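Expect chain and fold; see below:
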Amino acid sequence: MEKISTLTNGLIKENPVLVLGLGTCPYLAVSTSASNAIGMGIAATFVLLGSNVAISLLRKLIPDKVRIPCYIVLIAGFVTLVQMIVQAFAYPLYQSLGIYLPLIVVNCIILGRAEMFANKNPVAHAALDAIGMGAGFTLALLAMASIREIFGSGTWFGFPLPVLSDNNVSLLTMAPGGFVIYGILIAAVNKLLKRPASQSDDPGCEGCLSASACGRQAAKGGAA
């Protein structure tokens, strides 16, 4: 059950993008088409799996003081391998992803899982965590990209759709549209998980730096 939980946490409950808020830069940038989303998701999952396994294997050998630089070197090696494979066998995708493919090196999902999970767990658990988080990232990317491509371009995986191809909302393929859809998806996941809205307690006038110049405080003083 623990392994199943580790594998499935990343899908919804701890989705790296829609719940943890990680990897938003490539998420917003490449989610204009479903094919780009699938390509980026697979590439990130491969790097996440390779780096998690390698870091878990070496966790007792890497000195604590230099663990972050070591993690980055390992991640960069897997990213370079993925970049070479995509460039060789899927050159159109390589061109579409552009700078965001090598920037997987600094994707906070990869480094975050290395620091928070892989260096504290055995290889099997680290691999399951990587697969679950990678699948969650890919599904979130695909959901975002499908909405933006279908309604923003009138296509899906490049194939034109009846009616929508002539009546699309091009704003959805731009940055503002991306943020709008991102907010809607986060709200939907919060509703699904039944997460309450964040509520901060009012500290009162005593905790305010501007209390002396505030009309509210003056009114309280007059009333007293």
Q: What stands out?
A: The longest helix spans residues 123-153.
